[in-house]
């Protein structure tokens, strides 16, 4: 009967021991295994904000038929009355207003309650509204320093555009009830991510639509 060299046997036993020791650690860090038992972090603080309209832009992202209707995302439709109120306030203070619509649509798809006025800009893109658009140029030419991000989907247009705005050094005002998704978990993790991720956490302020004010 053939026998294995002593060195080979020793290496085999050492490998087996290492694997056995690693198993509990791997299980402890098993996201899927522990998914249902993970507890959400405490709710973040919601701030009142007063903004300078001369350097603030309100971004209304993808309030369009394809992503915001009673058939595909009623949560988005439910946000529109409060968004409309904020839009009226922003207009009254002459803040910059910028819309977006999806690649598969046109500007005409924007919800009638939020119809753009002549002179209000819009961009067409995927989730990141800076990508392949003139959004950066529009913000620069108006001297914008702060962006209010509203829209749908939270995990799409809101997260991607807010993150990119933060990376570019803008202050991001995120009204938690001004974004929507098909599931509240997405809205929750987007708020958490923007408030905790590197770079975005330094530039993001969580607020409510009713807590946004404009200075004179």
TrEMBL record:
Domain (Isochorismatase-like) ranges: 56-196
Leader sequence segment: 1-28
Keyword Nucleotidyltransferase: no
Example of a GO MF term: hydrolase activity
Keywords: Hydrolase, Signal
UniProt name for this protein: Nicotinamidase-related amidase
Annotated source species: Acidiphilium rubrum
């Amino acid at each position: 009967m053939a026998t294995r060299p002593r060195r080979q046997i020793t290496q085999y036993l050492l490998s087996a021991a290492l694997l056995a020791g690693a198993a509990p650690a791997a299980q402890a860090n098993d996201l899927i295994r522990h998914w249902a038992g993970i507890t959400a972090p405490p709710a973040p603080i919601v701030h009142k904000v007063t903004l300078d309209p001369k350097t603030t832009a309100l971004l209304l992202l993808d309030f369009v038929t394809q992503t915001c209707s009673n058939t595909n995302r009623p949560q988005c439709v439910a946000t529109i009355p409060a968004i409309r109120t904020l839009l009226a306030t922003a207009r009254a203070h002459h803040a910059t207003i910028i819309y977006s619509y999806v690649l598969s649509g046109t500007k005409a798809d924007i919800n009638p309650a939020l119809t753009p006025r002549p002179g209000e800009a819009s961009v067409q893109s995927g989730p990141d509204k800076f990508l392949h658009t003139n959004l950066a140029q529009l913000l620069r030419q108006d001297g914008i320093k702060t962006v209010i991000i509203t829209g749908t989907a939270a995990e799409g247009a809101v997260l991607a555009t807010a993150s990119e705005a933060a990376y570019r050094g803008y202050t991001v005002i995120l009204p938690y009830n001004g974004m929507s998704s098909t599931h509240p978990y997405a809205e929750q993790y987007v708020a958490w991510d923007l408030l905790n991720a590197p770079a975005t956490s330094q530039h993001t302020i969580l607020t409510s639509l009713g807590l946004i004010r404009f200075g004179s």
